[in-house]
TrEMBL record, chain A:
The keyword RNA-binding does not apply. Belongs to the mitochondrion-specific ribosomal protein mS29 family. Keywords: Mitochondrion, Ribonucleoprotein, Ribosomal protein, Transit peptide. Residues 52-80 are annotated as: Disordered. It comes from Linnemannia gamsii. GO terms for cellular component: mitochondrial small ribosomal subunit. This is Small ribosomal subunit protein mS29. GO terms for molecular function: structural constituent of ribosome. The gene is RSM23.
From TrEMBL, chain B:
Residues 128-261 form the Small ribosomal subunit protein uS7 domain. GO terms for molecular function: RNA binding; structural constituent of ribosome. Pfam families: Ribosomal_S7 (PF00177). Residues 37-51 have a biased composition (Low complexity). Residues 36-111 are annotated as: Disordered. One of its GO terms (cellular component) is ribonucleoprotein complex. Keywords: Ribonucleoprotein, Ribosomal protein. Signal peptide: none annotated. This is Small ribosomal subunit protein uS7 domain-containing protein. InterPro entries: Ribosomal_uS7 (IPR000235), Ribosomal_uS7_CS (IPR020606), Ribosomal_uS7_dom (IPR023798), Ribosomal_uS7_dom_sf (IPR036823), Ribosomal_uS7m_fungi (IPR047988). It comes from Linnemannia gamsii.
Amino acid sequence: MAHRFLASTPLLRTSLSLTARARAAVPAQYANYVTASAVVMAGGKAKKAAPKVKAQSNSFRKKKAADDDKGESGSGGATRLNEKYYKPSIPVKVEEFLPSTATKEHVGQVLGFPSTVVPALAQTAYPTLLNEQFELIKPAALVVRDSTVSFLEKVDEAMKTPSAQSRIVLTGEAGSGKSALLLQTVSHCLSAGWIVIYVPKATSWMNSSFAYNKVANTTSFVQPLLASNLVGQIQNVNKSILDKITTSETATVGRHEVEKGTKLSALLEVGVKDQFAAQDVMEVFMKEIGAQKDIPTLVAVDEVNSFFRPTQYLSQDGKELDPEHLKLSKLFLNYISGKSTFKHGAIVAATSDTLLANKSEVLDVALGVKEVSPYKRLSQTILPWTQGLTSVEVPNYTREEAKGVFDYYKKANIFFDAASEPLFLNKFITSNGNPRKFFTACAKGI
Amino acid sequence: MLRSFSRLGGISASRICFQQPTVARISIASFHMGSRPNAVSASTSTATSPSTPLPPPMAASIPKPDTPLPPTTANATSAQGTDAEPVTGASSGQLGAEEDKNTQDDAESAASAFAEFTPVSPEQARSLTQNPILSQLVNTIMKDGKKARAQRFVADALLEIRSRTQSDPYHVILDALELASPILKLTAIKKGSKVLQVPTPMTERQRRRKAIVWILEASDKRKGEKLFKDRLASEFLAVVNGNSGALVKKNQLHKMALANRANASLKY
């Protein structure tokens, strides 16, 4: 866990493992140094190598026969695949999920992400468990639900209001469709022309997987590479829109000066090229898009519970840092808690039950999802950040929605049983309509 | 008293209470064979009762992997997308519109030597608990009574086969088990001082178990695939593609049996 220690060598810019980094750090003149034991070992190896070569040449045919069960088709190349079973994958035909199609009439239909939105969504990874489903059935598509329609209406209302008034957290039981609803919101806002900042795995910001440096004379820390990555993602997702907005004043970002009137895409480019300026770039960027009223902004954060619990980073004293001590997280926390606001926009977040260790009791209590004893001590440093969040519960599938998904799975050849009413009822009832369990029941039969 | 019983026939003391009469032995055997009260009654009359002779060797009835299955009337109409099966006629209109190639394939596989047992209802044809073949596979994989874990392995392996081949994994597994199963086993008997290997027939379940065990052993040798479900899926596909350690073992056993075919007529 080298990231836990304060370091900022150029090697940290790469994502090498500790051993690879150690190996790379050895200067060239020592890399080829030969010790006495190495010479002895080489002699022994040479003795072993000689008879081995002979044996290989004599029993060449036998060895090839033994190597036959490498892979399902064989290493020889002469074995063929059984044509009876290997068929080409045919993507399922689905309509596009657009603002015009996300209506009550389409509830129960599975609609795919529009072709304009897919490259933007490809900049960031899909949420982990949803990704498994998308890998299995191509193209990526989600069902339009009652909760989708009502939630998107809410988001559309937020288009003309400050973001501090629309800070929504999606809650619900595990596998009920929170991340999916968030993805649909992101797709909807991208199609509608919003600026979208989508963070699919906020946990990766807090689990010490990125290097961090202390800012002099403060208690805060920056994560240069993380900020640079985020800046690059925002730029790729919103490129055409950001060309229309320019900075309103000169700003100093790291070692660079950004003049007044620079396009925001050019500002973000600075952060992509210089990771140590990326944090300042993010702050200037958020201020600029918040100050303008023409284009609304959506900040979509998945696994938001990691923002409301201690991180896995350590301070110099060896104590766990809170998210507010990391500058990038604090920037987002300001918007989530309403301390900073976009003039037009919304903040939508989703909790995640994927890892029990990431659960935030403070957030659950603040949203009213969980009740604890009044004597229980909740973190007083994290609790203030949760004020004013509204909770929207995502329910399980209704029967109509589940029927639509069932038909879609059958079309996609996820299961090969006859698509009958008793089978559908079997899957729906045993999974209680929970989307994730319904998928498992259909795909795996357990 | 207990000691004298055990001296009589080598029956352990614990077994005394569980000695079954002849009638009940058949019912247990048919339980193993997978027949249910509602199932086709023909399955109960196969060679499980001791009075009927042993069935002939199965070699002739197993379809060879290279020859396609003979076309049936159901197959011929499947391309048109008609609902040949009464089951799907009963389903709701929006679901029943699609053609039922798979239930017709099920009818084909029912005709094959292995799938002679019909499950209770069509939606449970591929059920891990109700389908006798899949449940035998699950039970063979299960260790220490961890059934749910074994079911997960089989379900994940089936899904893996499906994602690699885009076709019904159940048929892949049926085919693989048929290909890998030996026809007979070699029983060692002592004639005088010599030990002779006698080829003896096996029941369906014994044959299938041998195939499963060999496939599991071959899958353990796979390197480069970390997860069990990936190794198992690769091994099933390797059997179906014609190169697997399980097939090698089957062919070796068949060769030995051919070599010792003279001993088959010996009585012991």
